[in-house]
Write a structure and sequence with these properties.
It comes from Thalassospira profundimaris. The protein is built from 22 helices and 13 strands. The chain is of the alpha/beta class. Among the domains are: 238 residues, MetI-like (MetI-like fold, Orthogonal Bundle); 71 residues, no CATH class; 78 residues, no CATH class. The strands form two sheets. An eight-stranded mixed sheet has the order 7-8-9-4-10-11-13-12, with helices on both faces. Strands 1, 2, 3, 5 and 6 form a five-stranded mixed sheet that branches. The longest helix has 37 residues. The structure holds adenosine-5'-triphosphate. Adenosine-5'-triphosphate (ATP) binds next to strand 2, strand 3 and helix 12.
């Protein structure tokens, strides 16, 4: 077997990400400029910054031989500014490193070990924090004596609590996470866990805190020097220059404006760069987003080929959406294409999907992990995060209207209103700090003008409808006080809050045991019968499909490869992939049957092969399968398959 060379990571480099954030880039350029100037100052043709020249006192900027003028002793301001910036930078960065090292160490140890260690360390930190920090810094300098180094120590010490508190908070949030537990279970000792599990996770916070405090510390050191406690004459830093200039502010404004301007530029550029560094270090933003995800998935109409191109999924040769809308389908999807652009790679997560959901109908979307089911579901109401997600083509007709032509506010009104989602893990979708009753009230009042009391009554009714025992009391419970099955019922109650016409359920029973799963499926079936709700049910489990779905669409590598009624697909699968998928389902009582796993792996959606994406795993594949795009061909009675060598189908 030949192994393909590994493709270069699609993740944009840190520099590229920084370049995309214009403000951070500007900060980086200015800060780099100041640093370079500070570094080369000793080699620049500058006069001695401490050389006085009483004959040339208080010269204004642009004077002959003194570009920025002179101060009250006739010293060259440009030279003093560059040497002073050097000192301020060195002190600010050193104090920040010192505070970051000791503060973070205290925070990590305290947050990790907790208990008495945490108590002792944090009470110590609280004692330091009990003093106003600038008074504490003054007291430290007063005790140690005025001077730049003592100012550095004072500023570093008063900032240690800031790091310690911040980092302890982050550590406490991480220390009970599953990956730390699994490191413990694997036998790692405290030091290794601290270094390999905790530190890398708090590092971005340390760097971000540092990048934002360097500017602050430069200001604080400047403050001490301004008060005469930092740099001592004739040595200058930006603060002492500002202090000297302040005395002559009315007669020679440039003496204070120039160092003040430099402090402003320096602090501003460091803070802008700090924000950029935060965005780069956060792995969730590495996918290309330095910006907040847009409220609705970005639609890129430049890639639109018009409705339904060949092979995308018309069935029976008719333009799908029009035909389905005529049939009165609640949801009609035509040639939907959703992509993720990561660096130079384009991941075609949904590659031209067409299907419809009729009124009061339940359609199943089935497929292996990564086949594009969730992205399809999220695309329907523009919920795929942008960036990096983009709708690259297609139409989604909800009750005859194209969702992608709607205004953002209209789409928002539909979400949780006419169309509602139920997700796999209700614990992560329910708010941990509000009671389930309050969350239901919020969902109801987001779409209806009703009083809190009325909404609360409706919330209790909803809980009763989804068969939560003792709903009046349970409405006051918090998500963590309910069992997994109950939480999922609350998730369904939330979805039902505004009597939706369509429920999009993304693997709502996957995390539940079989008895609770059966109860939830029964509940959803009852709701369909009583309220006429339509359901798009996403699952990888054919057992669930047979329980609840009228029709089913099988997805593979971002495309629908087979579609038909549940009976057609389960009893007569036409696509070899569907057949293999059904054969993977264990059946009770069949002890002799060996579960046939599908060999190989699905292709990466950023590197899809020409022709059938399943060909490499299919024992029926021929050369023709790899020759070009394959259409979803009708087999009769609404059954369709995207295969040129389908299994033999015997329709009743
Ligand atoms: N934010 C993202 N950035 C890049 N690629 C993504 C992103 N979200 C999903 N994808 C890719 O889109 C493809 C489809 O993912 P999707 O979540 O729809 O699969 P799925 O069939 O729902 O799988 P599962 O059953 O495991 O949830 C996968 O290849 C996945 O890696």
């Amino acid at each position: 077997m030949t192994i393909k060379p590994r493709k270069r990571s699609a993740r944009p480099s840190a520099l590229k990400l920084l370049a995309r954030n214009h403000l951070a880039l500007m900060g980086a350029v200015i800060f780099a400029g100041v640093i370079i100037l500070a570094l080369i100052t000793p080699w620049l043709p500058l006069v001695n910054p401490d050389a006085t020249d009483p004959a040339n006192r208080l010269l204004p900027p642009l004077s002959d031989g003194h570009f920025l003028g002179t101060d009250h002793l006739g010293r060259d301001l440009l030279s003093r500014l560059l040497w002073g910036t050097r000192v301020s930078l060195a002190v600010g960065i050193s104090a920040s490193l010192f505070a970051a090292f000791f503060g973070s160490a205290i925070g990590i140890i305290s947050g990790y070990f907790g208990g008495r260690t945490d108590n002792i360390m944090m009470r110590g930190i609280d004692m330091v924090m009990a003093f106003p920090y600038i008074l504490l810094a003054l007291a430290i300098v007063a005790a140690l004596g005025p001077g730049l180094m003592n100012a550095l120590y004072a500023i570093a010490v008063v900032n240690i609590p800031f790091f310690a508190r911040n980092i302890r908070g982050v550590t406490v949030g991480i220390v009970h996470r599953e990956f730390v537990d699994s490191a413990r279970l694997s036998g790692k000792g405290h030091i290794r866990i601290l270094l390999s599990e905790i530190l890398p996770n708090v590092m971005p916070v340390i760097v971000i805190t540092m990048s934002t405090t360097v500017g602050w510390m430069i200001l604080e050191t400047a403050g001490l020097s301004f008060l005469g406690l930092g740099a001592q004459p004739p040595q200058a830093d930006l603060g002492s220059m500002l202090g000297e200039g302040r005395k002559l502010i009315t007669t020679a404004l440039h003496l204070s404006a120039i160092p003040g301007g430099m402090i402003f530029v320096l602090v501003m550029s460091i803070n802008l760069l700090g924000d950029g560094i935060r965005d780069i270090l956060d792995p969730r933003l590495k996918s290309g987003a330095l910006a907040r995800p847009a409220p609705v998935t970005r639609i890129d109409r430049s890639t639109w080929d018009g409705p339904a191109h060949a092979g995308s999924g018309h069935v029976n040769g008719q333009p799908g959406a029009k035909r389905d809308a005529e049939k009165g389908a609640i949801l009609s999807v035509e040639d939907l294409r959703t992509e993720f652009v990561l660096g130079d790679d384009v991941y075609k997560a949904v590659g031209g999907v067409s299907f419809h959901v009729g009124r009061n109908e339940c359609v199943g979307l089935v497929g292996e992990s990564g086949s594009g089911k969730s992205v399809t579901a999220l695309s329907l109401l523009g919920l795929v995060a942008s960036p990096p997600g983009t709708i690259a083509g297609g139409r989604v007709m909800l009750d005859g209207r194209d969702v992608f032509d709607m205004h953002e506010q209209e789409i928002r009104a539909i979400r949780g209103g006419r169309a509602a989602y139920v997700f796999q893990d209700p614990l992560s979708t329910l708010h941990p700090l509000f009671s389930v009753g309050d969350q239901l009230v919020e969902a109801i009042r987001a779409h209806n003008r009703v009083s809190y009391k009325e909404a609360w009554q409706k919330a209790v009714e909803l809980l009763r409808m989804v068969r939560i025992p003792n709903p009046e009391k349970r409405a006051d419970s918090y998500p963590h006080q309910l069992s997994g099955g109950m939480r999922q019922r609350v998730g369904i109650a939330m979805a039902l809050a505004n009597e939706p016409e369509l429920i999009i359920a993304d693997e709502p029973t996957t995390a539940l045991d079989v008895t609770v799963q059966a109860q939830i499926l029964k509940l959803m079936n009852n709701l369909r019968e009583q309220h006429g709700t339509s359901v798009l049910f996403i699952t990888h489990d054919f057992g669930v499909v047979s329980e609840i779905c009228d029709r089913v669409a099988v997805m593979y590598a971002g495309q629908i490869v087979e579609m038909g009624t549940t009976q057609q697909v389960l009893e007569n699968p036409a696509h070899p992939y569907t057949k293999r998928l059904i054969d993977c389902v264990p059946r009770l009582g069949e002890t002799a049957r060996e579960i046939a796993a599908i060999p190989g792996l699905p292709p990466a959606v950023n590197d899809l092969p020409v022709g059938c994406a399943f060909a490499d795993r299919c024992d029926r594949a021929a050369d023709a399968c790899r020759a070009g795009a394959i259409d979803l061909d009708p087999l009769g009675d609404g059954h369709a398959v995207r295969c040129i060598k389908p299994m033999e189908v015997r329709h009743a």
